[in-house]
Design goal:
Blueprint (H helix, E strand, L loop, with lengths): L1 H4 L2 H8 L3 H33 L2 H7 L9 H5 L9 H37 L2 H8 L16 H8 L1
Length: 155
């Protein structure tokens, strides 16, 4: 990611993007990520339901409120079966958890690139990369970064 961040072509492409195009690009990446998760999560739910049997189920219940009765209940469960609604609910919870993880990672990377870019990439370098002096960040003028640095960090 850092090598992509300090790539001249990335700065040139992003300096010519309108703010709307930038957010459309971000939404495209988000849609691809959600589609990928929606394809992968049902397999994970199936794997978990197949593994949650017998002693493995008792081990999974350790340190939970049902740990004390897990031994008794495990004998009554022949094979776990989830209804469509339960499976959909589990997939939506997993999707939300994964998206939250990705959002936290993306926010951390955004902050890192803003700080790294501000410290390591001078205005003269940005000017040589994009062909013009860095412009002020309009809507977020309280941030001491240029529009170009902001857009590359978002990208």
């Amino acid at each position: 990611m850092t090598f992509l961040f300090i790539n001249t072509e990335v700065w040139q492409v992003n300096s010519n993007l309108s703010r709307e195009s930038l957010w459309l690009t971000v939404m495209l990446f988000t849609a691809v990520a959600v589609a990928f998760l929606l394809v992968r999560l049902p397999e994970e739910v199936h794997h978990v339901s197949a593994q949650a049997r017998g002693e493995r189920l008792v081990a999974l219940c350790t340190d939970t409120p049902v740990a004390s009765i897990a031994d008794e209940v495990v004998g009554d469960i022949s094979e776990p079966h989830l209804s469509r609604l339960q499976r959909g609910n589990l997939i939506s919870v997993l999707l939300f958890a994964r998206l939250l993880q990705v959002l936290l990672l993306a926010g951390s990377m955004f902050a890192f690139f803003l700080i790294f870019g501000k410290l390591a990439i001078r205005a003269t370098v940005i000017e040589s990369w994009v062909g013009h002096a860095p412009t002020a960040l309009l809507r977020f003028d309280w941030l001491p970064v240029s529009n170009e640095l902001f857009q590359v960090s978002v990208f």
